[in-house]
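User: Working on a comparison across species. This one is AraC family transcriptional regulator from Lichenibacterium minor. Can you predict its structure so I can line it up against the others?
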Amino acid sequence: MAFNGFLRRLALTAVAAGGLAAAASIAGAQTTTTPAAPASPAPATPITPPVSQPPAAPTGPTTSAPAPAAPDGSAAAPASPPDTTISQTMTLQPHPVVQVSGQSTWDDGFKALNDSFTKLNEQLAKDKIQPTGRPMAVFTETDDAGFKFTAMVPVAADPGAKPADMPADESFGQSPAGKVMKFQHRSAYDDIDSTYEAITAYLDEKGLEAKNMFAEEYLNRTKSSDDNTLEVDIYVFLK
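Assistant: Here's the predicted structure for AraC family transcriptional regulator from Lichenibacterium minor:
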């Protein structure tokens, strides 16, 4: 679900740019027609006495002509949703994790991620290994049907030998490292697409190029995808 919105925004950004160009041409047309109006009051001023010349203040309406330009500015404001998204450039360092890979459809993504974290935490409890940080999902591949991910839970150190009771699809490894932009999502997982759209707009505005990989770190766990108390930090890896 998240990555789908991340890619869709590229097309939406182009549409928004076309809308702004059209608004600019309309504003230009208005400013060229308004100067033509003052040209007709000008001949009227010599005919009327000097005292009545103050009505030449009808040139004042030309001050109202810039008024249409103000709506243009206000129309441009919604084009910068990244203002509502807190961003931070940083470098992630690798740290030991226990991990499991999986895949899911977009509709079942929240459940698939939660089930993977539950599975990892249960295994750590069996092996008496204490988690040392928040769970993270790294997304590496997507298509129209769904996505592939690696769910990770930080641990203090790689124990070396894999515990005998650990399932074959689970292993110890390292979290991804590198230069990232960190963003925040503070709402339900169902609404995370809008955050990715804002992120894509921000990257386009700043001319930043992202790798085909990003990660979500979950500051808390929620039971349903519509729970508005969810807090997620999103890390977009930069080229």
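For your comparison, note: The first helix runs from residue 2 to 33.

User: Helpful, thanks.
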